[in-house]
Amino acid sequence: MINYNDDHEAPPLVGCVACQSVHIQGNCALKRAGVEICNLCGVAHFGHARVCPHINSETQVRNMLIALKESPEAGHLVKEAKKYLAGVKGTLVQKKKFEMEKRKREEATRSTMSTGSINDSAGG
Question: Which of 26, 30, 22 is nearest to 48 (CA)?
Fold first, then answer.
């Protein structure tokens, strides 16, 4: 049953950033699902991306991979966790490399622009 407001208008539909679907404002399915606490940092994370700061840290991921070597969990679970974390680490390394290259290009562009403006003003 849908409850309408005093003017008998349907409540507004919104594009939800948490579940990535359109629904009545305040009626997100994730809200009804309850809160799941992150085992890494103890905070609830919502959304579909890797939002936990621990999983976005190359150092933390490396430490998790090291810890998995001593894990008492079943072998198939450890294998899957290692595979996942290796992929995460690879993504983080690529992201870091991309950011460094981007910064170098921006610095080179700024350097060229400033050198060009100095040469223009000296020659004129």
Answer: 30
